[in-house]
Amino acid sequence: IRLPTNVKGGGMKRQTNFEILRVLAMAMIVAMHFMLKGGIAVPMSDDGSAVNYLAWIIEALCIVAVNCYVLISGYFLIETEWKLKKLISLVAQVLFYSLLVPLVCLLMGIGDVAKWTVYEWIFAVLPLQMDHYWFATSYVLLFMLVPVLAPGVKQLSKKQLQITIGVLLFYYCVIKSLSPILLSTDNYGYDLGWFICLFLIAAYIRLYGIPFFEGIKKSISIYLVNCAGIFGISAIAGFICRKTGALKYYMDMPYCYNYFLTLIGSVALFYVFKQMKVKEEGVVTTLLCRMAPYTFGVYLLHENLAIRNLWPAWLGVEGVKGRPLFVLQMLFAVVIVFAFGIVIDFVRMKL
Question: What is residue 72's predicted lDDT score, i.e. its pLDDT?
């Protein structure tokens, strides 16, 4: 969804900031996928090396990306007119990639698409219903609910909205963050319920703001401190797990979207860009803003079921496993994935 150019209460500079954050968030997502699907970041219970720790530090800095992406959308959708054609366009975009990428792979003999069963092809034909892309499924469902959520939020008083957000966070975030065991209803933030929480938080920021995060230096500090906490807690749990076998479940919890440190870090990074002043006439700024509308296409391309586990190897991940050089290879991979994704989505939009 493109950010509107005439949003109530938002100037062009603020929108430029959020466009840049949108690009940064998608770059973080690609970087995480490169390390995780490429096998660079392995469980800290299995590997306590400095290189593996470096990978998880980068993961901690990037794990806020998905939350930020949803916060951006919620921040603008609360004041933007909802239109059915936008929903249709969004669904069509998902179908374009879910169908086209496997067909191209089939014709070119890439991967194991030729061996797909009928059931696997259903993932391509019904991507939202089959959760082909978990993010797209949750995001489209959230967008469907915006005509109800946005007016509903505006009917609530500030206190009522605070209570609503507090209750939802207690259910989705607080209990999960403290529990040493897996909760049956916890989907780690990979679901519509968590996206609704983020939408309400973004709406609250738009309507009332959160003074705690105000001040760009303060928000940067909060972001970095929480990222350090995410890595630190996970590293300690991983160390204990290596020694005793305990806390293996909790070792991964800080890297969930609905973990309390991840949420706080996400809001802090969102506030960094919310308050940032950007020179709109700059070459880099102009380039990033022109890239922003195509970032969702970058996601739909590299996370397609046909290639999601293949592209890290194509971009040289095997040659840098266990070596600090993986950082340079990761940056290279982000650039390449972005280049292909933006060009393809640009063509799709023209079509």
Answer: 97
